[in-house]
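re: ur question from earlier - yeah i can do the single chain one, its not a big deal. heres the input i used so u can compare w yours
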Amino acid sequence: MITAEQYSNSKVFALIEKEQSKDPYIHSPFKAFKSLSSKKKGKFFEHLYAEYVSGKGFKVEKPDNSDHDRKVDGRKKEIKGSFLWGDGTHFRWQQIRPGQDYDDVVFVCVYPDRVEFYEADKVTVAAAVEIQDENGFWIHNQHGGKKVNSGTFCLDGFPPDFEWLKAV
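and the output i got, formated as tokens:
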């Protein structure tokens, strides 16, 4: 057994403390949000976006089915959120599935000091993620390696890296 006191004096504890000190959200009001499970984060990304666009006068409705998260002014929106990854090197939006029923993808970017919203239509996003390199690898494939198109993709970067993203 290791007591809490012994643990707090251990090398492991010191390493964890050092690692956590690199977290750009350590003093951010978004820290608690970041610490939620992926499923709960997804739910709150959806709520945050709905509250934001509703406040701008858009009509927000429940989805028609589980392939999208909200309808905004009649358009089906799939909402993908991300906090900064690593030491703030990029965002990663995951579980992008071009085969699902939606019109637009909303990209939620949670910085330590603000939240930004971007979007692009499904055709544009699919063209950006369903690409192969010169070796035939699916470079944005999220599951099953890079040799097979799994239908599920991820995108890494910052909004300015993607000229096709439009601020909401």
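The chain has a mean pLDDT of 95. not sure if urs matches, ping me
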